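Q: Could you fold this chain for me?
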Amino acid sequence: MFEIGEYVVYGSKGVCKVMDITHLDMSGADQERLYYVLAPVGDTSAKIYAPTDNQKTVMRKVITREAAQQLIEELPEIELLWVPNDKQREATYREAMKTGDYRSWISIVKTLYVRKKERLSQGKKITALDERYMRVAENELYNELSLTLEIPKENMEQYIRERLECIET
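A: Sure. Below is the predicted structure, expressed as structure tokens.
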């Protein structure tokens, strides 16, 4: 069970802070069931009520500082998520995002970066689907790493690039 004040990743909602653990006093809610009251990072007005015994939506602790630094070092080895069929691609990306797994997010970002470069070299633009999933995956990844590494989200891409350059030299 998570504790009040702890940061978690909650399904496709991303990084959230556990604000409370309580029974809901709402019509239609099971009065005996415990709920986490989650506040998504970056959206102070939103609240998510998640049952503590929920098995459907992935909920995990955010990555530790040490694991985040290790993850960045391992970025070059994380494989692409290559799906040649356009229809299957969206389903694959959607499922990868649902897992809440940062390695899956990296696979999506790396894959879409390669696809974007290929399309641009052919004089084509990135597809709307690819652009949307690139933005979503980067957002989830950078939100989590930013929180853990205490680096502003807008600086995460540059930080990762610099770290990878240091590793390669």
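A (continued): The chain has two domains: 7-60, 63-168.
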